[in-house]
Amino acid sequence: MHGGDFNTTTIHRRYAVGLMSGTSVDGIDAAVIELIGEPGGKPEVRLIAFENTPYPAIAREEIFALFDPKVATVDRVGRLNVWLGELFAKAALSVISKAGLSQADIAFIGSHGQTIYHAPDTQTVEGLNLHYTVQLGEGAVIAARTGITCVTDFRVADMAAGGQGAPLVPFTEYLLYREDKRTLLLQNIGGIGNMTVIPAGCAAEQVFAFDTGPGNMLIDGVVERLTEGTKKMDVGGEMARLGSIHFGLLKQLQQEPYYSLPLPKSTGRERFGSTYVDRLMEYQNEYDLSACDLVATTTMLTAWSIGDAYRRFVRVHNPADRIIVGGGGGYNPVLMDFLRQEMEPMGVEVLTQEEVGQSSDAKEAIAFALLADYTLARKPNNLPGVTGAQKPAVMGKVSYSC
Ligand SMILES: Nc1ncnc2c1ncn2[C@@H]1O[C@H](COP(=O)(O)OP(=O)(O)OP(=O)(O)O)[C@@H](O)[C@H]1O
Ligand SMILES: CC(=O)N[C@H]1[C@@H]2OC[C@@H](O2)[C@@H](O)[C@@H]1O[C@H](C)C(=O)O
Fold it and tell me: Which residues bind ATP (predicted)?
């Protein structure tokens, strides 16, 4: 099949590539999917190939450097934008070949890019309400290197319509997971934690979602500090398993105002990034905690924040049957145990994406391919009820291939 052939036999089957790089900056997720169904409809999705390409160390360092707005000068931002465009293009070409396909087989690429700054809350300048978000990874470069039309920069259109520009994946979760009889919570535990609520038999307007708080960001942050950079994550929850939770500190951390902010809401590194980790390191001293105690307490805080979000914002009107966990946090057994302790007493079964036959690793990359399918069909692909946008928007900017 040729991606460019829009005749009646091929129009409903096409291959697409989705690219994602999350807030943890652990590399580029690339997926090839087959979409069966009308463009911009409710397609059947088949995962053909998936690959995670770690960033070269120098690129990762530059991304982290540019999280600091004082460091992110316009020349460095411009340079990183095309640099990441090149790396995303390579990741796309590699996964296409892993799928046993050629570029000519691929109808389009949907690429999220790398968020370096996200400012969803209104800043008023001379009566103008400004909110903004910056994702890097130039679509023109991806299209030029691959010869495939590429959709990028999804979030800004939702923000222009008054939304938070996040989360965007719930639209695709509604398309792919909705059930008639069960209310589902889809919990992503990436850098940040985010929850999508899909009530049994719901319409798109009834789906809601929000960021629950830190995902792995605080755990990764403290582990990196405590091990002087030799470890980037608590692999297998090993440190947390050896520590004890300090309930006094836990209680103090639970007072963070984000948890009680009303919906819709989203958050990021601006709140739970390195400044927050600095504070956790100070608490370690103040409470005289071992390294493992601090990791255990931070891991419990992360699990608690998900349970707390469910109790506060979901349970009364949408008692859930299942919470399906995706993202790297699902690979941390201690975090998953703590989450079970939170959720099971409330009657919510805790499962991973793999346990329901999906791929946790590929989920977000798949989502951006699916969102791009809607962009190219010129159909709205945001959920105003989720992002707080005042109206539907066709998100994504198109860089056409010749
Ligand atoms: N084996 C493991 N043991 C413990 N933690 C793990 C393991 N594998 C991954 N993780 C955690 O998952 C994180 C990566 O998660 P993920 O890839 O979902 O993040 P992301 O996509 O960058 O984030 P986001 O969804 O917020 O954009 C790692 O930084 C680490 O904290
Ligand atoms: C601005 C930004 O990149 N936000 C991410 C981040 O990572 C998780 C959470 O915060 C979510 O809001 C979002 O990503 C997912 C892919 C989303 O938009 O659904």
Answer: 22-29
Pocket of ligand 1 (CB under 6 A): 22-24, 26, 188, 190-192, 215-216, 219-220, 233-237, 327-329, 331-332
Beta bridge partners of 49: 32
Given ligand 1 and candidates 19, 21, 25, 26, which is best to mutate, with the most ligand atoms within 8 Å of its CB?
26
Closest residue by Cα to atom 11, ligand 2, is 167
Find where tokens 């390579």 sit.
90
Q: Using CA atoms, how far apart are residues 58 and 53, in angstroms rounded to an integer?
A: 14
β-bridge mates for residue 133, sequence order: 118
Residues 6+ apart with CB under 8 A from 401: 143, 144, 146, 147, 148, 149, 150
Q: 311: which 2 tokens?
A: 């109790």
**CA distances from residue 214 to 80, 128, 189, 263, 270 in whole angstroms, order as listed:** 26, 31, 8, 16, 11
257 cis-preceded (ω within 30 degrees of 0): no
Please give the pLDDT value at position 228. Answer: 96
Q: What is the pLDDT of residue 11?
A: 58
pLDDT in tens, 86-143: 999 999 999 999 999 999 999 999 999 999 999 888 789 999 989 999 999 999 999 9
Residue 41: band (very low, low, confident or very high) from pLDDT cuts 50, 70, 90: confident
d(CA 54, CA 32): 18
What ipTM score was computed for the predicted complex, to two decimals? 0.93
Q: Is the CB of 364 under 6 A from ligand 2?
A: yes
Q: How far does the centroid of ligand 2 lie from the alpha carbon of residue 360, in Å?
A: 15
- Which ligand is in closest contact with the Cα of 364? 2
